[in-house]
Amino acid sequence: MNYPLIHRLSRHHISLVQILTLLILISSCASNQKDYVVEVYQTSQSGDNLKLISNNPTTQSTGKYKKVNLQVNADQKFQEYIGFGASFTESSAWNLATIPETLRKEVLTRLFSPTAGAGFSLTRTHINSSDYSNNHYTYIESGDKNLSTFSINEDMKGFTGEENEQVKGIELITPDYDIIPMIKEAQSVKDAHFNIIASPWSPPSWMKTGETSEMTNGTLMPQYYSLWAKYLSTFVTAYAEHGIDLWGITPQNEPLHAHDARWDSNGFTAEQGRDFLRDHLGPQLVKDGHLNLEDLDAGLRVLIYDHNKSTMNDYVTPTYTDPEAAKYAWGTGFHWYTNSELEENNWYAKALDTLRTTWPEKGMIHTESSIDIDANDPIGQYWRESTDYAGTFVPFDTYAYDIITDLNHGVQGYVEWCMILSNKGQPNPYDNFNSAPILINPITDEVIYTPLYYLLSHFSKFIRPGAHRIELIGEAMEGLVYTAALNPDGSIAVVVYNRNTEPLELGLTLKSKTLKTHIAPRAIQTINFRFN
Asked: 324: Cβ–Cβ under 8 A, 6 or more apart, which residues?
């Protein structure tokens, strides 16, 4: 007789549990909207270098400055990020060989640690010598058509101090240092995680025709296409045997710069590049187990082009419209040159949009940028007008606008050229002296962290691999650009660059809460929403 009463009580108990659970969930959701720490980091012309300027932004406006409102919409996701960083070159390794081990390890920590440094996560290196090598070299003996002498010892053997006039007379603290030891030491940095794209500047001279000097200009002869493809695949294998699994490869660095170059170079027309990939390199990489046609993200990724973004759509079209060639290509790599022409072309945003919308299944990576060094003012030069062979530009503005425009138009990674050079932009046997994120005086051991190091850190440190660009709704304002990303751990990074000479008040709305912060004139900020 008591069963109905017990049944009614049981039903009532379940209802209470459901109500309590719902209240807990509502409370939890409300808590999660507030359960984050907001940190604001700034680099500015006035001297801030990735400085934590606030870890508790106010919700109140001061009313002092012009206001800009930005709304973060983390529910609208776009491309996934691969990473940000700079390149391993022989010149970079040589500079590290000139300083004490403790200082060298500190430099690499500042580059690769995501907590104690910039957390570089996407890098590049050269196959054979490049313009930032001490001299020309390949991995085989001249005329070796079966690759029996292939060895990457050139990337491991270290330095003698006699390679060229720029390095003579400079003490080498660690003469057995080189590119591979540099990469391995970077891998050993605590919590470091980075991928590497490898690019050839030139095949051995005996495989080419039309050269103007050793490994300079000219083009690979067709009868050596298959041998060169096997050479590149063998390089990938050799690096893997030393614990360096390459993330990607480009078939040729700057294939359209092979007529008037002063350093290692090789010409490939768009059609030659297509044929080389379709008939030689792609099949060889598949044969050797490096490239997975079923899933291009599962193995080595082939990035075609690897030259200036102004003409990238013309170059990639023959490859991408040929299914038998396109099936091997993960995506497009491109460079920013000519720097001085970027702004007048709106950073080639339309070209990026065309590439993304025409070939939406293909990835997009910025694989190289650099500027000439002013050795007398290596820090100040980033904030004032500089020149290149085509015109003038302001380096810090150009980098900030170029990176943010690239990201907002679908690019998945950004890689600078040399990560380390000397305070004179050396060694470079061709007197083409660049700046870099880090400059080392090989005589005094002084280490200079340039504004470029801090600028790149605003992205690499806070936008981690696997992050997605998210919607950032804001007002258009002259001299202001911004982007936002959602990381795999739930943190959100908003990067804002204020090119103007006046400070601004930023209002950032995330869900239902609006925070206020100020950005200095001529400054870049990362506002990091870090969830507890």
From this structure: 278
